[in-house]
Amino acid sequence: RGVGRTTTSKTNIRGLPKCNIKLRLAVLDADDLNNIHVSRNKGLVSRLQSHLVKKEQERQGLSPDAPFNARVKRAKLLTTNIDGNNHHRHVLHLEMALPGASSSSFSSTTTHDSRSSSSSSSSGGGSNMLYLPGDSVGIHCPNEMQQVDRLLKRLNLTGNEVITDIIRNDEDMKRPTPISSSSSVLRQRRGGRDLSHIFLPISVRDMFLYCLDITSPPKKSVLRVLASHCTDSRDKDYLLSLCKMTPIGREGYAKHIVKARPPLSEILERFSSCKIPLDHLVQVIPPLLPRYYSIASSPSTHPTDIHVAFSLVRYDVDDPFSTPLSSLSSTKNDVAAQVKEKLSSQRRRRRRSGLCTNFLYKECSMRGIVENDYLKKLGVRSNGEGDRDDDSEVNHNDKSSSRRTKELEPPPLILPIFIRRGGDFGYPSEIGRPIVMVGPGTGVAPFRGFLHYRSYQIKALISGKALGVGEWRGMDFQHLDDEDSETDEDERIAYPAAAAASENSSSDNTNQRELDGIIGEAMLFFGCQKKNRDFLYGKELEAFESDSTLDKLHVAFSREKEDKKTYVQHLMLELAAQEIYRMLVQKEGYLFVCGDGTRMAKDVMNTVIKIVEQEGKLTHAEAKSYVVEMLKKKRYVQDIWS
After folding, report:
1. Is 591 helix (H, G, I), strand (E, B) or coil?
2. Distance CA 141, CA 357 (A)
3. What is the C-alpha separation between 519 and 618, in angstroms, rounded?
4. CB-based burial, 86-115: b 16+ in 10 Å, e otherwise
5. Does the pTM exceed 0.85?
6. Are 201 and 184 within 8 A, CB to CB?
7. What digits encode the pLDDT tens for the residues 107-159?
8. Is the pLDDT confidence value at 74 over 90?
9. Which residues contact 358 (CB under 8 A, 6 or more apart)?
10. DSSP label at 161?
């Protein structure tokens, strides 16, 4: 930054959290390091990740048992780059195998309707794990090594320092108290942040790698702490200005922190006079939390696997600290100043990446398991399809060569995961009620699980059997062997829907339409840019419509026509307003919305209100009141994110 005037001002900052912990560090030699911790020690990494996931389970009130160590068995790109646009979004489909699970795992006596119960939420064995359509999977991933190295360099640390204990200086105690236990887990004492997410003993590198969130935008309270340790008054004033509740302060925090999302290392590099001690830094940095992804499968069809789909988050931002904070308001109405600011900020572009999505993609790519159907059609070998050129010769009898190749292969990707219940966002137990699903982009993922379960449900109703399930959501079925073809009188009384479907259908030629009145209609609205680019699970969704699992599929391709952008809310209003009103109002069906919460979810809600107002001949206030009542009765359920 050049030479600036420094100051040792000890100005107190009101409301600044005090540091009441002290780290006890030990510098160990190479042999001790290998024996005690570090990221190269796979055993400790597994224990550490399991500990972090376990803490998150306890925080949610779930079962404190060990998480599942799921093996990633398949990865596939669902999007193509057919138009040569390198900036469009990539979506990855991931399949994880559950340990100890078998095809009979779904034949559990655990009710599907007990979403609030945590008894079946997780267990160390794998076979007791019963996820449901609408649930999410939690994955704990490490920070990027490059960010950790940058942070260690800025703090003048090697990363090999080992934290053996943490002392909390409680003011109400006569002497410092060590926070440790026989289980090497930090226990919460009085005051300060709960440090139970740190696993002792641990190296400083591993702590930043696995335990602390060093990439998310820091809160204003963290910026205030950093400002208090700046020796340059300009650095201090800049950071404090971002925390002020003034127009410039709010705009500066929104632009430089929330939008630009600088990691901790970048902030410390920019404000080089900040000399914050490691003790205080550890106390104010929040824990690294797991990332959640909607499950895109159903245990009825995939009892041994969990499927997820997620977008690879990658984008560039302008240098967040390229312009003075004081110039924000002055450039609003000055076009020349805006152009100058834009050119200045673009000189140094910063790359931002989603933490977990890019970690999973890199790990899968490194193991060569990422499939790409578009490259297959072009005859190009995609990443993961073979390890050598087609014209290379291989000596299959050379055992030493085979052994060396096997030794060079990376180990399978094992992820500690756990299930988070979907709550009200789950397939309805009242199977006679219609359902309307709205899920553009990756928001379609949970509805894929819904439709897999619905397909299973229809087949079971047609055959009059439970097809390997102990209990349906809301309908108890005893397990029936595949050889049984008759339904006795007791079963007809207990399960009238299945019995009626069995009586009204032949064994060889039965159509799902015969279940009208027994199982409600299903309609799905999906949205993407182009059909040949990002129509996620397109063939599968069209197959669901063909076999009547899905009564109607509406797809909005927003970039197919250059002169007009079409989104899901447009199709709802223009093509299906009467059907939506009939399904949601007259038949009191369910509406599920999944995806972007900043714009899409609001637009969909306004569209539903307009449909109720238009088709029901109501005032706007009456229509809005009806939709609010749907939300209260859990007939309008959203799973949205920003």
Report:
1. strand
2. 9
3. 29
4. eebbbbbbbbbbbeebeeebbebeebbbeb
5. no
6. yes
7. 433 334 444 443 333 333 344 457 889 999 989 889 999 999 999 999 999 98
8. yes
9. 144, 312, 313, 314
10. E
